């Protein structure tokens, strides 16, 4: 790259030379971080946000969408469910692609699938198509967008590992990961607003297709490399050092990783159930849909705020385990509180507070847990270790939703219900208690049984001539201060 030194920050690392030659040490005496990393992160955030907007385009305006396309509400719901159906089988291929073919190919392919799906959705509702063909073509476009989701949602951990120094990795992961719920929030606000103003689904699909096309152009033209010419850290040089299948086998034999896989996957499932069933749970007790939407918005907004604070804290302290255990415990308490308060009438303030706390403590865990999955499984590829946890969360989400729906019981009388006729007589008291119990049980298992060393940070410390003993109570902050001097922009 021309004038590359003008686009990077250089790290001069003072090392203690061991008695035997160390090939990694010889290669990594100088680390560089390039300003281009912020552009790639910016494009990934836009792509992640756009993809989640396309996912939930129709959910907030389901009635109008069904009427416009001449289909039932169940068919409209499948426009959202298709994301989950596609994500589970394709996730394994996505982890292989990220760790084998690289970051650039994965991101560019994801941006093209996202753009083509958005454009196809818009084309399907133009006047040239007969009414009977509208929904199948929209579903085709939605499927293309669903194909892009794993390519996008698995990327933050890989991007943070390859382009960012160790004291910025958790923050970069947090920023990229939280752009997904931000897109959900945008769709929840703007879909009803656009349809309410124009009363036209075609305008809605056009407005959502424009940013998808712009992001595709930015990704294709602007992202030129999968990794920087000079790595930002010692672990970046050896990223994905384990072959894909061997990495899978290593993960299955890693006790700490399997505990994280099951327990945090359960946490993802609980949050999916909360987001999916919130309106149905609250309407039985007389809470209107707009208030349920407000609680969902508070859940996301406070979650993004919490993730921002926790990401910065973990980047400075490296206390991944402590932060995850504390926040999972507080999140479980918030889940218990929601399961109780949601079954009471006229508790709007309490419900709004509980939903805000649930998001603040729960959402903030996600990027930190993804980084922790890499720390406890290194040198397995970042996409593989983080991707399997996402797959676990998706599988458990399907199980939890089916279980909770199956536990609902008909109510003899529901005079205060604001639900539609099909949901008015269902009681969610038992399912809510079961959800709280599952959340609490897996949280206790994680707090009690999860212990690991920070393998990636340990490997980086060894590469600069010192071998620290890293446990849950130790960090590498002092190590960084002793061995790294930043010498200007």
TrEMBL record:
GO MF terms here are:
transmembrane transporter activity
Species the sequence originates in: Oncorhynchus kisutch
Q: Does the keyword Metal-binding apply?
A: no
Q: What is this protein called?
A: Solute carrier family 49 member 3
Instruction: State where the protein is found.
Output: Membrane
Name the InterPro entries on file. FLVCR1-2_SLC49-like, MFS, MFS_trans_sf
What are the record keywords, sorted? Membrane, Transmembrane, Transmembrane helix
Keyword Membrane set for record: yes
GO CC annotation: membrane
Write down the Pfam families for this protein, in alphabetical order. Answer: MFS_1
Tell me what topology the record assigns in the membrane.
Answer: Multi-pass membrane protein
Membrane-crossing ranges are: 38-58, 78-98, 105-123, 175-195, 201-223, 257-279, 291-314, 326-343, 349-374, 386-408, 428-450
């Amino acid at each position: 790259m021309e004038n590359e030194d003008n686009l990077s920050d250089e790290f001069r690392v003072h090392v203690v030379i061991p008695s035997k030659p160390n090939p990694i040490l010889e290669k990594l005496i100088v680390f560089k971080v390039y300003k281009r990393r912020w552009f790639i992160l910016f494009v990934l955030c836009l792509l992640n946000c756009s993809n989640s907007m396309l996912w939930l385009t129709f959910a907030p305006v389901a009635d109008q969408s069904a009427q416009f396309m001449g289909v039932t509400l169940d068919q409209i719901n499948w426009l959202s469910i298709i994301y989950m159906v596609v994500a589970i089988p394709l996730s394994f291929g996505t982890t292989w692609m990220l760790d084998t073919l690289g970051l650039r190919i994965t991101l560019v392919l994801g941006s093209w699938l996202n753009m083509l799906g958005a454009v196809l959705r818009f084309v399907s509702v133009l006047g040239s198509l007969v009414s009977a063909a509208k929904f199948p073509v929209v579903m085709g476009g939605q499927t293309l967008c669903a194909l892009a989701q794993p390519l996008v949602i698995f990327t933050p951990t890989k991007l943070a590992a390859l382009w960012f120094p160790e004291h910025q990795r958790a923050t970069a992961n947090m920023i990229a990961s939280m752009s997904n719920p931000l897109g959900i929030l945008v769709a929840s606000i703007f879909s009803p607003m656009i349809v309410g103003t124009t009363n036209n689904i075609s305008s809605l699909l056009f407005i959502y297709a424009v940013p998808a096309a712009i992001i595709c152009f930015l990704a294709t033209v602007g992202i030129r490399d999968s990794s920087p010419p000079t790595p930002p850290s010692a672990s970046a040089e050896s990223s994905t050092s384990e072959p894909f299948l061997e990495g899978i086998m290593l993960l299955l034999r890693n006790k700490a990783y399997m505990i994280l896989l099951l327990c945090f996957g359960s946490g993802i499932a609980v949050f999916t159930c909360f987001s999916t069933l919130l309106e149905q749970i609250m309407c039985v007790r007389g809470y209107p849909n707009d208030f349920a939407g407000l609680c969902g918005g508070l859940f996301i907004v406070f979650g993004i705020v919490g993730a921002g604070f926790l990401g910065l804290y973990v980047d400075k302290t490296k206390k991944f385990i402590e932060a995850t255990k504390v926040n999972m415990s507080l999140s479980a308490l918030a889940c218990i509180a929601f399961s109780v308060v949601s079954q009471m009438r006229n508790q709007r303030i309490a419900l709004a507070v509980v939903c805000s706390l649930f998001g603040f403590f729960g959402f903030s865990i996600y990027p930190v847990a993804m980084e922790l999955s890499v720390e406890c499984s290194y040198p397995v590829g970042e996409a593989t270790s983080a991707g399997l946890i996402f797959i676990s969360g998706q599988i458990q989400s399907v199980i939890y939703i089916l279980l909770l729906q199956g536990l609902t019981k008909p109510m003899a009388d529901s005079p205060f219900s604001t639900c539609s006729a099909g949901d008015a007589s269902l009681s969610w008291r038992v399912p809510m208690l079961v959800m709280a119990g599952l959340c609490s049980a897996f949280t206790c298992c994680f707090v009690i049984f999860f212990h690991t060393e920070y393998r990636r940070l340990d490997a980086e410390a060894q590469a600069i001539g010192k071998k620290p003993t890293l446990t849950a109570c130790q960090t590498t902050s002092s190590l960084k201060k002793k061995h790294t001097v930043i010498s200007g922009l």
